[in-house]
TrEMBL record:
The keyword Glycosyltransferase is assigned to this record: no
Highest taxon above the source species: Bacteria
UniProt xrefs under PANTHER family: NICKEL INSERTION PROTEIN-RELATED, PYRIDINIUM-3,5-BISTHIOCARBOXYLIC ACID MONONUCLEOTIDE NICKEL INSERTION PROTEIN
Organism listed in the record: Neobacillus niacini
Keywords of the record: Nickel
Protein name: DUF111 family protein
């Protein structure tokens, strides 16, 4: 494992991917379970529609977490979903270096996260919460905030 601080480009080889196939689970439970998993320290949680045995529709729940969080994630999955088994395996994640800059819009500042590969910017994304706050504060469409942020970045 790299000795760099988490904001530097590095390989994180202490990650685990957990997954379960779910059927006969109400949709409301899925959002609740996602919230619990994130609150317990999951790095990512996502759902994919699937077809299971006998062509039954189901949901594939997948999550990423650190090795230290596996037991709490399994406990949540067994207690809060309809699954009878959890698959999990080690995973390495290549994380880009992340830097943040402030971009001024006519409605206020927005933080932009940049991902660097070998020291060069290869990804940029305005922080959603900043954009949402300004859109609500000024009663304007969220997309207008994003549009102005992108214009400012491209200057």
């Amino acid at each position: 494992m790299s000795s760099h601080p988490p904001n530097y480009e590095h390989l994180d080889d202490q990650m685990i991917k957990l997954e379960v196939n779910l059927d006969n689970i109400p949709g409301e439970w899925l959002g609740y379970v996602m919230d619990l998993l994130f609150e317990a320290g999951a790095n990512d949680v996502f759902y994919t529609p699937i077809y299971m045995k006998k062509n039954r529709p189901g949901i594939l729940l997948q999550l990423l977490c650190s090795v230290e969080k596996v037991n709490i994630m399994k406990e949540i999955l067994f207690k809060e979903t309809t699954t009878l088994g959890v698959r999990y395996y080690p995973l390495t994640v290549h994380r880009l270096e992340r830097v943040f800059q402030k971009v001024e819009t006519e409605w206020g500042p927005v933080t932009v996260k940049e991902g660097l590969l070998d020291g060069k910017v290869v990804q940029r994304a305005p922080e959603y919460e900043d954009c949402k706050y300004l859109a609500q504060l000024h009663d304007i469409p969220l997309k207008k905030i994003y549009e102005q942020v992108w214009k400012e970045i491209d200057r």
